[in-house]
Amino acid sequence: MVLLSVIIPVYNAGNFLSDCFNSLLEQSIKSRKIEIIIINDGSLDNSEQIIEQFRVDLSKDYLVKIYSQNNQGIAKTRNKGLDLASGEYIAFLDSDDMLSTEYFEKILNIIEKNNSIDLIEINAYKFQNINDKKLFQCHFHGSGEILLTNNAKKSSLEALKWFAWSKVIKKAYYIDNYFPEVKSYEDQLLYPLIFIKCKKIWAIQEPLYYYRQNQSSLTHNIKLSHLEDFYGVFKQQLSDLDASNELLILNSFYNLFVYRYLLFEFYPPHQAYASFKEAKRCFFRYINKNKMLFLIKKYKIRKKVILLFFFPYISVIYKYLFFILKNLTR
């Protein structure tokens, strides 16, 4: 029985792929209960050759599936991995990153002893040079088994830590939840929806993942044009949620949208941080005063979002945001 499927999307990762695969071969335990799924998304470099070089060695220790396709983007590639996966739990490994040597040992130990765990959260190291790695805190739940209350879910949604590689999740939660096919941050759109359905998680404090800060990766090349895809998917997701979950998701989206897409992408950090703090103060004053009743009323989605952002005393960037949303939802 396969307990864990590890999905590795590969696109032009030749410079880092050997490090990624070697981290699988150097695990403290190896098992046929672990399935490695490698999907070559139409790479134009030497990625395919490196995959073939490691095929035999990886197959000695794990169940291995290798699939090649024309370039379709990260969301479709991850979704293909989900289609191919036979494990009870799903993990993702980016092709320019690495696993710590104890990753499989720690994860298997948890899921073999407690099958009621819906989601496992891990921390990571981030690095450009492996000799200068720094802790990357991906969750704030302490450690061990945690029953998710609404307050715990709300805190997590506000933390903006929704990386595909930072969570190991029961495959059952992916059955009706695939990655939306947007140009960027598809994991940020999917995982809040999965998270609010989870009842029990397990948090691991020690870093089990090495996240490479690769400046050429997609997440370092976000464009304003990506907003249209992001907002369109978000609007559809919001329309499918009930009022209580809608509140959680909308608040998460608020932080993500302003903090990541506008402020820190287009403004110097000191200006962006000041604007964000002021926006957040205004936001919470507003929802406390109005008790979030506008979420339950049958406003159009566009109006709900505009109500959050369009205050006359916030900086000019929010007027710009209003202009964007107005044009996106015509």
Describe the structure.
This protein is an alpha/beta fold and 330 residues long. The chain folds into two domains: 216 residues, Spore Coat Polysaccharide Biosynthesis Protein SpsA, Chain A (Alpha-Beta Complex); 103 residues, no CATH class. The chain has twelve helices and ten strands. Strands 1, 2, 3, 4, 5, 6, 7, 8, 9 and 10 form a ten-stranded mixed beta sheet that branches. Strand 2, helix 2 and strand 3 form a beta-alpha-beta unit. The protein is globular. The C terminus is likely disordered.
Short note summarizing the structure:
The protein is α/β, with parallel strands linked by helices. The protein has helices at 17-25, 47-61, 74-84, 103-113, 150-158, 186-195, 226-239, 243-266, 269-290, 293-296, 301-309, 316-328; strands at residues 4-10, 34-41, 63-69, 89-92, 98-99, 119-127, 134-136, 144-147, 167-170, 200-212. It has twelve helices and ten strands.
Relevant terms:
about 45% helix; alpha/beta; globular; single chain; transmembrane helix; ten-stranded mixed beta sheet; Nucleotide-diphossugar_trans; 12 helices; 10 strands; Spore Coat Polysaccharide Biosynthesis Protein SpsA, Chain A; 2 domains; transferase; about 325 residues
